[in-house]
Amino acid sequence: MENSTTEIFGENMSSIKFTIIPPNKALSRDVECFRIAEHGGKQGLAIKVCPNGFPGIVFQHSNGRPAIENIITNSGRVLHMPDTLFVYGQVTELSVMNFKQEPYVTVQAILKPHALKTLFGMDASRLTNNSMSYSEFNGEVFNERMLSAKSYQEYISLFENFLQEMLREHQSRDILVEESLKYIQLNISTITVKELLENVYLSERQFEKRFIQAVGISPQFYIRVKRFNEAMKRIDSGQYERLCDVAHSLNYFDQSHLIRDIKVFSGITPKSISQKVNELHHDLIGTSYLS
């Protein structure tokens, strides 16, 4: 994976620059990538973020203060972010991140689905639709160093050093779940939980319990989220003329089932996607757009 930079523009002419940076070799098993987002305008932004199957760690600030006012989920839950550094778990519904009316920078470590367990030694379900502040994982020194950082390179170097230290402290792995996650990724067009169970030699109840502890959500729901994200990627690619072709390529029961998932996880209809082409941002992490 090479570094990549993109910009998205909204109707209010605000711009956000995203830079994707791959992790070093020591972290590649547990970190998907680092993503830096920089907004130079003074307008307050509301960014809708779709579920993507990844937990993560976020450092976000505007002049040394938290840049995020709050996060509001589709079901109406309001999460306030009083700190500049926090860890979040799996997100199961569309959420709106409301930013202050100031320029800001966010630096995210996008973690592999299992990495809350390997990096923090925790049951990942504790953080599903939730977050924890840096004081809850001994991140005070790391937070102070990030606030003093002067460049993207320094941000990433600090992040990598911190995560490698966390990995040395915990190193709690469930190899079976990690291999199952790889299998899902490679076979997202056709995979079912029944097929997974045929390869792991566990009862459905045992496997689901271990999967939820390591990932934070059930294997059924995880597959649904990943298939939705793959559908959005294929729609965005322009390689499919009709939505039913996308549905067929991903083994949806029919087109209506794909439309349902797009509405539930993105908050928009397939027809609306083309109308939001200048606001949608899609990368290997998932889909987001200006509200």
Tell me about this structure.
The structure is a single chain. α7 (219-237) crosses α9 (255-266). The two termini are 29 Å apart. The protein folds into 2 domains: 4-169, Jelly Rolls (Sandwich), CATH 2.60.120.10; 175-270, Homeodomain-like (Arc Repressor Mutant, subunit A, Orthogonal Bundle). The protein has helices at residues 115-120, 140-148, 152-169, 175-186, 193-200, 204-215, 219-237, 243-249, 255-266, 270-273, and strands at residues 4-9, 15-21, 31-39, 46-49, 56-61, 68-73, 78-80, 85-88, 95-99, 104-111, 131-133, 280-282, 287-290. 37% of the residues lie in helices and 23% in strands. It is globular, with a radius of gyration of 19 Å. Mean pLDDT is 90; it is low at 9-13. By secondary structure, the protein is of the alpha+beta class. The strands form 2 sheets. Strands 1-2-3-10-5-8-11 form a 7-stranded antiparallel β-sheet, with helices on one face. The chain has 10 helices and 13 strands.
**How can the largest sheet be summarized?**
7 strands, antiparallel
Low-confidence stretches: 9-13
Number of separate helices: 10
Give me the strand/helix succession. Answer: EEEEEEEEEEHEHHHHHHHHHEE
CATH topology name of the largest domain, in short, is Jelly Rolls
Q: Using only CA atoms, what is the Rg? A: 19 Å
Could you name the CATH class of the largest domain? Mainly Beta
Main sheet: strand order: 1-2-3-10-5-8-11
